[in-house]
Write a structure and sequence with these properties.
Blueprint: H1 2-11, H2 13-30, E1 38-39, H3 51-62, E2 69-77, H4 85-100, E3 123-129, H5 136-154, E4 159-164, H6 166-172, H7 174-200, H8 203-231, E5 235-236, H9 239-267, H10 272-299, H11 307-328, H12 330-338, H13 357-367, H14 369-384, E6 392-393, H15 405-413, E7 425-431, H16 439-449, E8 455-458, E9 462-463, E10 469-476, H17 483-499, E11 505-510, H18 512-546, H19 550-577, E12 583-584, H20 587-597, H21 600-615, H22 620-647, H23 655-687, H24 697-709
Parallel strand pairs: 1-5, 6-12
Antiparallel strand pairs: 2-3, 2-4, 7-10, 7-11, 8-10, 9-10
Membrane topology: Multi-pass membrane protein
InterPro entries: MMPL_dom, Mycobact_MmpL, SSD
Pfam family, one: MMPL
């Protein structure tokens, strides 16, 4: 099929390019943009069966004007001493001034004697932020305007104040994220250009992926937005960055696979048109199978209960499909027209290099496949052992710079209040018969909640509009974003609070800590479902590609082992060497997306070449040696480019971005240089002809040749 397709694309190159461009213009011009289906509300991605979501729904009904979040103004004396009665009066005046400023997106500030720390070192002013969680600009303006009022009101006084809380943290670190993602985008372009220049010594080959994939990214974004509108789903704010890396990662992979095979055919003396047609014929099946594996892995995310993953899957699958179509149409058509000038001004494409590094590696592996299999396998197993020590970390604040106003204000707050005061856990007390809550029920619950393990303080209740619901803000004694807090809420706090509900009432626990506790549960459940289902489906795709049952089994095992090794390496570095309490909770799913799914590309390219060499009549060890010699350069180049893109994140001033950058870069390098380059070829050489059972495609050709010769 792909030989016919290759000839069609080459013969109708201008028609292919024209049709592609017309389609791109229509899609970009007529379909909605990605920003129209983007959401930053993590709670909106959990199903209603989780208690934290039930708390959100209950709060919306009982407190229809409730703020989306709260900013905390932490007031202290500049000399660090205790607040005097006059200082407390000035703090009250500050709260009044903020309210009188009528700042857009901000509700009425609250403070008072209860907001003064027992040691009188700080006083808090709670400011409801009513701007929508998805309206970053409105929240930014609200915090900045609040800070201007504070600066004006406290000028010349003995007091100073800072704004803390999640909203202030986001505002303070907005530039950090913008800078980090700009660096990623720039570094991606630079790495692709520089590395392809080194590989092919041609500016045309280097610029080709930048131009093509930039258009593909815009087309994909609009198609995803249209699908979101059609099927009513939103996507997380991180999707734009993930799209950038996914498309440039796999897009460059597919381009390299084609260019390496195209150059190989040119060196064999074939004309430029025939060379590209044959390249598509030989690599088209590999690219399609690789894309199918990635698409399937992404679509398996639809099984996730956490909607952030569920919507991420089809979005990325759409992007990969567009890149696959591009790799089989636009790229071959362009290169077939450019011809050997694609490699200009270098003339190295005309001659086959002798004694290359990959030829030596392949020869060594062919001589001693058992040694190569044992060494590469032991490396991966040793790293994978770190998974046993894995702990998820939900504390984003700890990973941000400590020099921002929000970070300093949070540190000041802890001088006088429990850490949980920055982001209280909300306990909603409601009657079971629809009647109003009594004073005795409110007082009884408040007194009992104060004695619950892990609760450092209980704020006075706020009663809802109809009197059937009351909100209690519980100040945890530990950092509300820490692993300890997540475990506390998940294992003990919820059950304890349920147990102390007065007769005729029930308790629903919400807030950020409770939300992340539920996300933790959802993550654990999702990974336990997603990994095995994806493994089975990828094995099926490999089986269809190879017409084999045996090879897909050890290929999938290798991919899963590489995934575990990558996660284990992150655990050893960040939990062990760096002493972090855990690794970011997002890491396993990010590794699934980039290491397991995209890393499968390298396996498919290598095993397809192994099969090709076996069908050419080579014995298993010789086939492994030749496969490494010929497929090794494209696997290595693709791996270095994708790993380098992520490695730049390791320089970001945010902890969880550094973790993601290091971990994915490590995983891609392990996939390219350990799994695909050594483990898979050596296992195939050791298993021999049985690797292709029951098809025995490698034997069929030699039997046919022997029959003809006889």
């Amino acid at each position: 099929m792909f030989d016919k397709w290759g000839r069609f694309v080459v013969r109708r190159a201008w028609w292919v390019i024209g049709g592609w461009l017309v389609g791109a213009v229509l899609i970009i011009g007529l379909l909605p943009s990605l920003s129209e289906i983007t959401s930053g509300d993590q709670g909106s991605f959990l199903p209603g069966s989780y208690e934290s979501v039930q708390a959100i729904d209950l709060a919306k009904k009982a407190f229809p004007e409730q703020a989306t979040s709260t900013a905390i103004v932490v007031v202290k004396r500049s000399d660090g001493g205790p607040l005097t009665a006059d200082d407390q009066a000035k703090s009250q005046a500050l709260a009044t001034a903020i309210g009188n400023a009528h700042i857009a997106g901000v509700g009425q500030p609250l403070t008072g004697p209860r907001a003064v720390a027992p040691n009188r070192l700080v006083q808090l002013i709670s400011i409801p932020v009513t701007a929508a969680a998805t309206d970053a600009q409105a929240q930014l303006a609200a915090v900045e305007r609040t800070r201007e009022v504070i600066k004006t009101q406290l000028a010349g006084s003995a007091l100073s104040a800072g704004v803390a809380g999640q909203v202030a943290q986001v505002v303070d670190n907005n530039d950090t994220f913008t800078t980090a993602f700009t660096v990623v985008g720039t570094a991606t372009f630079v790495l692709i250009i520089v590395l392809i220049l080194i590989i092919f010594r041609s500016p045309i080959a280097a610029l080709l992926p930048i131009v093509v994939i930039s258009v593909v990214m815009q087309v994909s974004s609009n198609l995803i937005a249209a699908a979101g509108r059609l099927f009513d789903f939103n996507v997380d704010q991180s999707l734009q960055t993930l799209l950038l890396i996914v498309l440039y990662g796999i897009g460059t992979d597919y381009l390299l696979f084609l260019l390496f095979r195209y150059r190989e055919r040119l060196r064999a003396g074939v004309d430029k048109k025939t060379a590209m047609a044959e390249a598509v014929a030989r690599v088209g099946e590999v690219i399609t199978s690789a894309a199918a594996a990635v698409i399937v892995a992404f679509l398996v995310l639809l099984l996730a209960t956490f909607g952030g993953f569920g919507s991420l899957g089809p979005a990325l699958a759409i992007a990969v499909f567009v890149m696959l179509v591009t790799g089989l149409t636009l790229i071959p058509a362009l290169v077939s027209l450019i011809g050997p000038a694609t490699f200009w001004p270098s003339k190295a494409w005309r001659r086959e290099p002798k004694g290359t590094r990959f030829a030596r590696i392949g020869a060594a592996l062919g001589r001693r496949p058992a040694v190569a299999a044992a060494a590469s396998g032991l490396v991966l197993i040793a790293l994978a052992s770190g998974v046993l020590l894995f702990k998820a970390d939900y504390d984003f604040a700890a990973g941000f710079p400590s020099t921002t106003e929000s970070a300093k204000a949070a540190a000041d707050l802890e001088r006088g209040f429990p850490q949980g005061a920055l982001d209280p856990t909300e306990a909603y007390l409601t009657t079971t018969d629809g009647g109003e809550l009594t004073d005795a029920q409110l007082a009884g619950f408040a007194a009992a909640a104060a004695k619950v393990t892990g609760v450092g303080g209980v704020q006075p209740p706020v009663t809802g509009t109809d009197g059937t619901v009351a909100r209690f803000s519980l100040l945890l004694s530990v950092n509300p974003a820490s692993n300890d807090a997540i475990t506390l809420v998940h294992d003990h706090l919820r059950g304890d609070l349920h147990g102390i509900a007065p007769p005729g009432t029930k308790v629903v626990v919400g807030g950020t800590t409770a939300l992340f506790a539920d996300i933790n549960s959802a993550n654990n459940r999702d990974l336990s479902v997603i990994l095995p289902v994806a493994a089975v489906l990828i094995a099926v795709i490999l089986g269809l590609l190879l017409r084999s049952v045996v090879a897909p089994l050890y290929l999938v095992f290798a991919v899963l082992l590489n995934f575990a090794a990558t996660l284990g390496a992150a655990v050893y570095l960040f939990q062990g060497v760096a002493g972090h309490p855990g690794v970011t909770f997002q890491l396993p799913i990010v590794l699934y997306l980039f290491v397991l799914a995209i890393g499968t590309d390298y396996n498919i390219l290598m095993i397809a070449r192994l099969r090709e060499e076996a069908r050419a009549g080579n014995e298993p060890r010789a086939a492994a040696a030749l496969a490494v010699q010929h497929a090794g350069p494209s696997v290595a180049a693709a791996g270095v480019i994708l790993a380098g893109t992520f490695a730049v994140l390791a320089l970001a001033p945010v902890s969880f971005l550094r973790q993601i950058g290091f971990s994915v870069a490590t995983g891609i390098l392990l996939a390219a240089f350990v799994m695909s380059m050594f483990l898979v070829p050596s296992l195939t050489a050791l298993i021999g002809h049985a690797a292709w059972w029951p098809g025995h495609g490698d034997m069929d050709r030699r039997r046919t040749e022997a029959t003809i010769a006889g």
